[in-house]
Protein: Oligopeptide/dipeptide ABC transporter, ATPase subunit
Amino acid sequence: MLLEVKNLNAGYRSNNKIVRAVKNVSFNVEEDDFLGIAGESGCGKSTLLFSMLKLLKKPGEIFGGEIIYKGENILKMDKEKLRKKRWVEFSLVTQSAMNALNPVYKIKDQIMDVIFEHSNYSKSEAIGMVEKVLHMVGIQKERMESYPHQLSGGMKQRVAIAMALVFSPSLVVMDEPTTSLDVVVQRSIMEQIDEIRSKNKFSIIFVTHDISLLFELSKRISIMYAGEMVEIGPTKAVYSNPLHPYTEGLINSFPKLTDVSKEYKGIPGRIPDLSKEIKGCPFKERCKYRKDLCDKKPEFKEVTPGRWVACHFPR
Ligand SMILES: Nc1ncnc2c1ncn2[C@@H]1O[C@H](COP(=O)(O)OP(=O)(O)OP(=O)(O)O)[C@@H](O)[C@H]1O
Structure:
């Protein structure tokens, strides 16, 4: 097992209020996995990703849980140990990664900085690594002499992705890595990342608002609702046979490439306020299948091998 998230709880404390953005979340990531995480805006996806890598900034706080990466708890690692593992063992790409590129340094120097910070490679070895990783993400090696402003948004984001891949980490966590780009560029970058992943067998945990892209590319998918994981399973199985009514609603809320005639509709209502206590199933107010038992909180349990759901009445 590459990563085990156990009972993770995290959120934000402010003015006598606690927003519980991640509640008792548990899941595993295998080697050579591509786990997509979907859910409405504000359901806790980013908080989950940042907590997992111990990168959640104040007022964010991890309330409890364990993140076991190759047998070691990330949340218990000290700063120095984490610094050594980041980029090399696991890396993060965010939506704003390309804006973090330093405007006064050439692309080559910025990637080399990451290499020298985490290794003893020589300059010529590092240049070789830069060329290789830029080629991998579809950037010609001549471009490494460019400054960020000389590149398009898509290319800058490819550079940010290249940085995250330069040490061939076992796990790459991506939080909306292509959201600020136009849809055609988004898709082409993500397809390329998936190709690299399949070849190099690392694992990806991926969050995006583009649910159709997520269903197309990921191997497994997990659905978050109001800070909780409500369903997880192999993507094809979840798509063809969603178990949680919320998953069913999400799937019906985006158009299908294969069947444009099918009507698609949103889910009425909105996610509950995460600073208030939620009794019973968090989705019950919006659920058309609601029954009395839904006032009692459903457990997140494995109903068939590899398929987990938190619902008293799986579909
Ligand atoms: N700095 C903060 N202070 C207080 N509450 C916050 C803070 N950041 C996020 N939250 C709250 O935590 C909850 C989860 O937010 P989070 O950004 O993790 O959701 P998300 O699913 O990633 O949303 P999106 O898809 O819009 O990025 C939301 O209710 C949000 O308002």
User: Anything to note?
Assistant: Residues 12, 14, 19, 21, 39, 41-47, 59, 274 surround adenosine-5'-triphosphate (CB under 6 Å). The mean pLDDT is 93.
